[in-house]
Amino acid sequence: MNTTTITTADSSPPYHHLPSNEHLQQQQQPITRISQDTINNLLNTKCSKSIQHLKQTHALVIRNGLSQDNFIAGSLVKCYSNPYFNSLSIALKVFSSIPQPHPFLWNSMIKGCLENHDPKKAISFYIDMMVFNSSSNKFTYPPLFKACMVARAVDVGVQIHGHVFKYGLGGDLYITSAGIQMYSACGRLTEARRMLDKSEEKADVICWNAMIDGYLKCGDLGSAIGLFESMPDKNSGSWNAMISGYAKSGKIDVAQEFFNKMPERDDVSWSAMIDGYIKGGYFKEALRVFHEMQMEGVRPRKYVLSSVLAACANVGALDQGRWIHAYVKKNSMSIDAVLGTSLVDMYAKCGRLDMAWDVFEKMKRKEVFTWNAMIGGLAMHGRAEDAIELFLKMEKEKVKPDGITFVGVLNACAHAGFIDKGLHFFDAMENVYGIEPKVEHFCCVVDLLGRAGFLNEAEQLIKAMPIQPNSAVWGALLGGCRIHGNVELGEKVGKLLLEMEPNNSGRYSLLSNIYARAGRWDDVAEIRKLMKDRGIKTTPGSSLIDLDGLIHEFVMGDASHTQSKEIHLMLDEIMEKLKTEAGYVPKTNEVLFDIDEEEKETALCHHSEKLAIAFGFLNTSPGTTIRIVKNLRVCEDCHTATKLISRVYKREIIVRDRVRFHQFRNGNCSCMDFW
Length: 675
Hints:
This protein is mainly alpha-helical. It has a 6-stranded mixed sheet with strand order 2-1-3-4-5-6, covered by helices on one side. Residues about 1-20 have low confidence and may be disordered.
């Protein structure tokens, strides 16, 4: 059967014929033009959080022939200058493509450089702006003054101040406020006050607040309180400046008085008070203020939560820290680098390394300080191999380490006894990474060598240091002498430290400990007499335990706790059980007094971590993990006793001492008896 194929002629001309104009017009697709207002709206709404949306919108700008529009270009510069995008170079290209930039575009570029931590480039753009005779306006100078403040370029700031008057902008209050802040931050209080007094319009409360803040930052508390009391009008910012200033000056009691007198508090007021307590080391008080803040119904913002997490980390308040994490999730708060790092640090310091790692892994954006927190957490837990592995992963992800990174890595090596690896990283700091070792890095290496028993090598390193060794460096060597019983070197280093830090009770105690272990009781007595003559009091050992969100503190020899009698009875029961079932023998050489053995055993029994363990047994069900934070290094006797308690009572006990974590389980410790 024959089949006939019928073809329909194509309307397009043969390939060897040129198409007609009519045919071209038929083939062309209409281009939909997008208005300038629509693109502006896209830039202002969709592009601030997404670099992909920004690039797509930029393509629309080019396609619609709007790339030379000053205001569109200014919006593009503003978006590309977002420090989270790391795209300032693209902002510079957009700026460079405009032949005659409008002041709005110059201002966007100046502000963008400042936000990307390049204040000198911001100042440079202003100089170019003047060279090109472009008109500045009132929006040009506030970020410029801030750039001068950050760069400490006060001489340039003086010249810019002259331009402000030259162009008739001296009466603008925003410019005045920024100028006052610049002069104050650079220590030029006279010029700052003159700027306040000579402002063409009557200075508003913001300018007064800036001047008060300047006085406080420079330590001139008298002038600050005088100006505060003479203010015609005060707002919450005025009170907040006083609270923050006094808190940062260490006068937390005065800051609390201002806080109590405030007619109306805002979240900044609460944050200033919390930060003040944290900076002063009053972490329990910081948590108390946060609790009061919640009771008054004030919703905490992210920066407040970061501060509170720091307090939780320091006292081991895991329950409070977990509540904050749950609050963040419940309120759909984005976990940025600062908040995420605070969570990582809190979980690591509260003994939940697994949860710290989970937060770290889920963070979309990690800064170098985020990596540092995780490396430091692993180091504190004795996970040296993991810390080093994370450091190598950090390198692969093109994150440049800093000095703090190497403190974490070197500490990890010290806690694990990794001599060769530690020395390798120390050498690589300058030779490979271009980071000059500072005194804290030398301190880590001395600690590394001292712990491992290389005391002479540690001493030689100190003598060869290119910078002056401080008390921390010599203290690390003294700690090594105590561990390995080197009385001769320990005595020499200890006496040197007593000259360097005559008011540091810890130095006296460590030297006494070395003498006591060697049975040199006359020398111990001499040290105690010296302390008495100098009015030095020994820092008592204290331990914190978090139960049901409440922090309980135990201090050696303190019987003020409401359950004191029950605690001591429980502790006696525990010690007796250890002796009969586990063969526990107290290490009485830890006692720094020349007393009989029975009295020494009693003294050891009352160490703060043992009291905290007994309290935990009384107030938790069998099998519950007990977490303790101790202000001093765990002594050998308590370390041995806690290992036995974990085995006899089948309890996991996690202790964070001044140096590291100890995870006691089934009669063993995570430190492998190397601490």
